[in-house]
Amino acid sequence: MIIELADPTGTLLREIENKKCTRNVVAKTYALALRSSVETDWGRVNRAIIARWSVSALKWIKNRAWSGKCFESANDLREGSNDGN
Known about the structure:
mainly alpha
């Protein structure tokens, strides 16, 4: 299955600005954007993540996105040490 985001940069920036979106929600979209053939402005996205959360949160989001852990179930997250908020 192929999933394309029409505007990965815009989608990520809207999620980052939305206080209801957790780091794990952003990590899921980040993961989809990594695999998309549509260009993403990673510098802009990463700066927005740092502005909202921190450099360590950016590392956390990247790790979750690259590993696919962001797609684990909510029960799996609750059992871990960090719930992604």
